[in-house]
Amino acid sequence: MKTRKLLLLVIMMTACSFTANAQLFGGQRMSENYKSKLWVDAGFGTCTGDIGEGGGCEIALRYTHMFSENVGWDVLKIGASTATDYFTEMLDLQAKTGVRIISPVIFGRSTLFANGALGYGFYTDGEQSNFGWEAGAGLNISPRFAVGVVYSSNMYSVHGYHSNNGLISLRVSIGL
Fold first, then answer.
1. Could you tell me which of 64, 57, 92, 69 has the C-alpha nearest to residue 164?
2. Helix or strand or coil: residue 38?
3. Dist CA 44 CA 91 (whole Å)
4. Is the pLDDT of residue 164 over 90?
5. pLDDT at 28 over 80
6. Of the candidates 59, 63, 74, 78, which has an alpha carbon nearest to the alpha carbon of residue 6?
7. Would the pLDDT of 106 be above 90?
């Protein structure tokens, strides 16, 4: 049943991203530098919440659909995060969607960005899934390279114990 719901969600998000390109906000044409693309995100930082403190890392693949040079939609982001002290025990698989706001060019080809996303996380050790979110901000150094700070959080209920696991990380993103 969960597989069918997830498949339906992916089909709906794909259909929305294809139809969204029919019109751009304000009728402007986007520059070649900020078109929709696939990104690889990697982050390293500190764990927060109920898992204690220590190192953490994350990796994700996301597709960002740009409506204009300043507004984008992270259609689907699939990734994993974990605490470095409990690498296999704290593996958290995630699927999220969100919005991305990009500033006008501040110098050279660099811009600032802010993003927010909501989705679902699956905690592999406890085999539990629940709501997750993230918020971040950073600098697009070029149209294909960005760095930023991100807070990602997932909430779980495992065997009657409620847990809020987070990761504050320095994230590097590379556009493919």
1. 92
2. strand
3. 14
4. no
5. no
6. 78
7. no
